[in-house]
Amino acid sequence: METMPNTPFRKTILYLISKLSGAGFLASIFAVYVLLVTEMDWFEFSEAISGWFFWVMPFVYGIVSSMIIDLIKLKLSNKRRSTEIGLYILFGFIPFIIYMEGIMFTIIAGSIGAASALLFLFGIYLTKQSKILRYVVAFVIPIVLIIMANIDFTTKVNWKEEQTNLSYQATFDYFNGKHEIPIEAQQGQIILFSVEFTNENGGGHGYHVRNRLDNYMGMEETVNQHAVEVPEDGIYRIIINGDGIKGKVEVDWEIRDNN
Known about the structure:
Elements lengths: L7 H30 L4 H8 L2 H24 L5 H19 L3 H25 L3 H19 L5 E3 L2 E4 L3 E19 L3 E11 L4 E7 L9 E3 L2 E5 L4 E24 L2
Antiparallel strand pairs: 1-3, 2-3, 3-8, 4-7, 4-8, 5-8, 6-7
Helix pairs in contact: 1-3, 1-5, 1-6, 2-6, 3-4, 4-5
């Protein structure tokens, strides 16, 4: 059987796939840790893997760092495996050395970063042994994780709601996940709102506000209310969260001009 010629283009593609396999392997380890070790439910798991950190560290910083390490190795006379491992450990520490939140933070977070970098390297070497494994780790696992990150695993039982222009309330026998209340506001205005939970079983609950880009909005606490300054026209969402809670939630809001 005739094999595909080992052209520069094919070498480049295989090289990039090897880096994707390292990133995919690291992301899969992250996912297993989040799901099994931290004992998160499916909603919490989906929220955790939808964050930018989960994807940027292996697929951006990890891949770019690995390529830089390869360039450094080309310039070194010492090309032993121990040198490569040392470089990966160093690059695992670098983000937390730059961040500099104190020596203990740098040591602990840097050690985790170094271990993650070594897992990235291990993923590259592990998947070299099997073409099927390489493609599964490089493409299939990340695609599955992307799909799961975009599934809303919120569970609501006997959810009954009422909404007006300036209020929202809901009663429920079980609420685990999130519910979004969209509010339209214009630049320069202030959204004043209050959230009150009636907790009948000791379940967890919370709330926050996000903008159209899904970024968190800062909240300033006033008397019995929270205030959010509106930087631009758009839809802002009050997001209420439940963690296996039974009871009721009431949300009231008003929009004022910031004079």
